[in-house]
Amino acid sequence: MISLTDLLALSATHHHRLCPRQVLGARIGLLAGLLLDLPLPQPEKRLIAIAETDGCFVDGISAATGCYVGRRTLRIEDFGKTAASFIDSLTEQAIRVVPRADIRELAWDYAPSARNRWEAQLIGYQHIPDDLLLDWQHIELTTPIKQIIGQPGKRADCEICGEEIINQREVLREGTVLCKSCAEESYYSSATFMLREFSTNKHAK
Q1: Half-sphere exposure at residue 78, Cβ-oriented, CA atoms within 13 angstroms
Q2: Burial zone of 183 (CB within 10 Å; 0-12 exposed, 13-18 middle, 19+ buried)
Q3: Euclidean distance between CA atoms 125 and 104, whole angstroms
Q4: Could you tell me if 183 and 94 lie in one domain?
Q5: pLDDT at 151
Q6: What angle do the packed helices 117-127 and 20-36 form, to 10 degrees?
Q7: 153-193 pLDDT, tens per residue?
């Protein structure tokens, strides 16, 4: 098993330096592997991670677990929380791990020579025992893990925009195959009309 020090060095390669949230991500990932009895970093794609924020915290999780967006083993559900859930896709056992509320203050006890709060957290989070650093619980997913993962290789065409949809992400509405955007589940809206209006007003001046 790779040491925490080595995992943190790997996480830090994606940033200018190592930070406390990377440490938390790595510690949370390692605890998840222990609780689910899975070897880490995982050699396969059995473990699925769902992080509740983005940024450096996620890089710590990836370094510890081997879960990456590119491997389709990492999802982001941005709740703005430094927390993550982990699912064994074989047994479908799932847990959620979150830092305890008092760890910022507790960090000083494990880094008494730290020069500031940031350094105390960086050092302290590496040494605080799991039961004092993290809380965890068994959870049940509201969406089945097989549906979350989808099925690679599956393709469909949206019957409105014509764009291709992969990994079983299409939506079926009254027998019509739609992408999520055309099914009104989009994160964006078309700017075509807005650009045309801007251009017309500009030339009018």
Answers
A1: 2
A2: middle
A3: 9
A4: no
A5: 77
A6: 20
A7: 789 999 999 999 998 899 999 999 999 999 988 888 877 65
Same domain, 137 and 167: no
pTM value is 0.81
Instruction: CATH number of the domain at 120, please.
Output: 3.30.1330.130
CA–CA gap between residue 59 and residue 68 (Å, rounded): 9
* Parent domain of 99: 4-147
Count CA atoms within 13 Å of residue 102 on its CB side.
Answer: 4
Phi, psi of 176 (to 5 degrees): -105, 130
Residue carrying the six token digits 């989009």: 186
N-term to C-term CA, the chain:
68
Q: List the 84-88 sheet strands across, edge first.
A: 74-76, 47-51, 84-88, 94-99, 134-138
- Amino acid letter, 143: T
Same domain, 35 and 123: yes
List, for residues 110-139, the tens digit of each pLDDT value. Answer: 999 999 999 999 999 999 999 999 999 999
Map residue 132 onto helix, strand or coil: helix
Same domain (yes/no): 130, 160: no
Q: What is the chain's mean pLDDT, rounded?
A: 90
Domain count, the chain: 2
Helix%, strand%, coil% for the chain, nearest 5: 40, 20, 45
